[in-house]
Amino acid sequence: MSELAELAHPVTDRIVDMIASGSLVRAERIKEVEVSEKLGVSRIPLREAMRTLESQGVLEARERGGMNVRAFTAAQIQELSDVRAALEPIAMRAAVPALQEKPNRIALNAIIEEMKWAVEQRDRRGIAAADIDFHSFLIELSGNDLIGNIWSGLRLQMQIVFRLELCVPTNLEHVAPKHLALRDVLFRGDLDGLEASIADHVRPEIRPST
Amino acid sequence: MSELAELAHPVTDRIVDMIASGSLVRAERIKEVEVSEKLGVSRIPLREAMRTLESQGVLEARERGGMNVRAFTAAQIQELSDVRAALEPIAMRAAVPALQEKPNRIALNAIIEEMKWAVEQRDRRGIAAADIDFHSFLIELSGNDLIGNIWSGLRLQMQIVFRLELCVPTNLEHVAPKHLALRDVLFRGDLDGLEASIADHVRPEIRPST
DNA sequence: GTTTTAATGAATGTATACAAAAATAATAAT
DNA sequence: ATTATTATTTTTGTATACATTCATTAAAAC
User: Fold this and answer.
1) What's the pLDDT score for residue A155?
2) Who contacts A11 (Cβ-Cβ below 8 Å, separation ≥6)?
3) Is the pLDDT of residue B15 over 90?
4) Contacts of residue A48 in chain B, CB cutoff 8 Å?
5) Strand D reaches within 7 A of the B37 CB
């Protein structure tokens, strides 16, 4: 029991990993002893982590006790896009000043290059990861704590949806040019074009453009 | 130990009550044994509830262990309004169909009457409570699970901010007529007027109108 | 053979217990 | 008197343990 830091937060991340890797499957009750042993901790920190993930919309409480990986309806997936389209313009607008600094521009470009590479490799998972990184970085740059906190939940929910492929298999190659366009608008500081660019980018996952 | 339901969820509500009533004070470490004994439970369900409230933005982890009631900066309070102004139009738009049904109209009117009464009594806390009820009801009617979930956290954060009166003491009497106007727009189904009405209503808490 | 009932097994939910760490108080030194 | 250092007390964090409830299987009745 010689822990320098608490276990609940790291365990939260590891549960997410297990979902992403398919160890924890949707709609199936999570067996606490099994998972806690696999993670090398007791059920106490595991359950605390599960509470966090519950309120982040990753897990959901079952009718008669226990939890499972949340199952998303089509409507709930649509809601994810709608909320992103509403919140991200606020964050990106706030991120514009920080994007005047070169180190931040370089970091954003690096993420874009990461995606280009994934596109070349036809690595769908890599593309999705780079996509999320792009938005996470801008939200962090925005300094908006509230949207950052909401995003931390949205991000995980999206990862589950992507993983389970409940969502229409979008042509992810179209995401890269959208990011390029968005970056240019942000670097330029063209706030008027922002809303349209973001909405155009966030939504097509559901309604793929022609 | 003969409990029919789990304790963590009810304990979550009771912690919120303790914050609202001033038993738990901002920026002060929450003593788990003290609170758990007061609530008549052990530290286990208390800590699970605290994890939930942590990710809802009500509590925050301290540097070296433990948690306290979250302290809000002025910027974070502004963020609350911004996010509300972005999300509530989506929910209210979705609530319009449900507001064609008489029972829902009656219920909404009842909440408005509740606020009128609080205004007459000059009961600031009552006004604030009715205000939150108004928005909670519409969000629930919208059927948007995601915004409902986000709102459950926002609502608690706002209650803390109101309680601590970090926020500019708005002339709460102005809230009632705004609700009336919003109701009329919603009943009419005048979607174009929605965004403006909501933004006008949600924001003045920070920038009080003349 | 099907349905109902009992019985066994497993899994959750929480209380107790203990070790590590932090905060506080007390003592010593300058 | 003030600061530094040590000792004491509190408090967190987690493991263990147990009671209750849920699920599954076996048995019995019809």
Assistant:
1) 95
2) A39, A41, A45, A46, A48, A49
3) yes
4) 47-48, 51
5) no
